[in-house]
Design brief:
homopentamer; about 100 residues; mainly beta; five-stranded mixed barrel; 8 strands
């Protein structure tokens, strides 16, 4: 899994029928030190996450192992909202 | 999923039999800010997309989770046509 | 899927038994503008392609969705021979 | 599989239900010569690994092939703790 | 599949139980012209390969399609030992 920050939403009304009801979020990738980089992913939301939250996302077939994404053409899913992580004993992020 | 713009079509008459009827589109990758980059992918079309449209595409095994691509040797599929997305409160694209 | 040009062949007599009979081709990756880049992949041939041909290849689990590669330890397959593709209205390649 | 060093832990209380009980570790990627690079992954722990240990991790669907990660939306797992490896006859790491 | 050269071995005694008996090899990635690059992978051995040999390896779910790696948390496997390959009519490698 990788770390990301939700920076926006995406709307797509014309889509594969099985995607109806899925919420698409724009996720900017974060480094291990909680800095934004140029990477991004559009991920389905499986946990009720919102803009501004720091999350974990999974990609590939693992992105279909949630109740909301099962058997759908979805290759990235937000499966956890991060409370905190640390690196070498230093706290890099804490949800307030 | 990632963002892309359909910039062309591809024709291949000699192919694995299971691919008959699939439409192949040339997709240029877009950044989170709606700029074209050097990346591309040839994706199967699952939603009736056309040249010039901005789309979402999925890769890997997730690309086979549509009615049109099920059990086919296809690793990229266009599964949604994008209406709009925003980043940090700014609209980056809107379909006209 | 991505575009590639078959530039050679590979021989491997000692291999997993399930790979017997598969033909391995050396594929140089092509850009969207039909230029060769430094990337390559060794792909199994599912369509009777030969050296010099421009092809589409699929990777990952999708590479096993052909009659010849089903259930084999193969992560790249040539599943189509390209006739032509165009980008922004310009033809980038045509098979002669 | 790739080599990594566990440099920290991650806490996420709000997550997909199937992830309950999984321990998330922050893993910094290592080069073949045992140097840390900028890459990282957040991996589930399948072997009781701890901060400071050098490990092997697997990604993609293979990350779900452990007792602890089966059928969960997890795309990276620590499946072995490394004792030692060598390159060109030189020992690059030995667990003390 | 990609080309690699086996440059060493890796020992891990504490690991997911299903990995018992698998041999882990350190593989340095090769370019299409048989030059070593900075990339590497730790791969399971499915064909009795040894240090110094040039091999083909497969990654992702395809790495589990061998008798030795079936249903194991393994995302890279050596599934063939290379005899020779050529590019643009030039032999780039021949096993002696």
């Amino acid at each position: 899994m990788l770390l990301g920050k939700i920076v926006g939403t995406l709307v797509a009304t014309r889509k594969e029928a099985s995607l109806l009801g899925l919420k698409f979020l724009v996720v900017r990738c974060l480094t291990i030190d909680n800095e934004e980089d140029a990477g991004y992913v559009i991920a389905a939301d499986a946990v009720g996450a919102g803009v501004g939250e720091v999350v974990l996302y999974a990609t590939g077939s693992s992105a279909r192992q949630t109740v909301r994404t099962d058997k759908r053409p979805c290759d990235a899913v937000i499966m956890a909202i991060v409370d905190t992580w640390e690196v070498d004993g230093l706290e890099k992020y804490r949800k307030n």
